[in-house]
Amino acid sequence: QVQLVESGGGLVHPGGSLTLSCLASGFNLDSFAVAWFRQAPGKEREGLLCLTTNGITVYSQDSANGRFTISRDSAANIAFLRMDRLEPEDTAIYYCAKKPFNVCGVKNDLWGQGTQVTVSS
Question: How far apart are CA 112 and CA 24, in angstroms?
Answer without folding.
Answer: 9
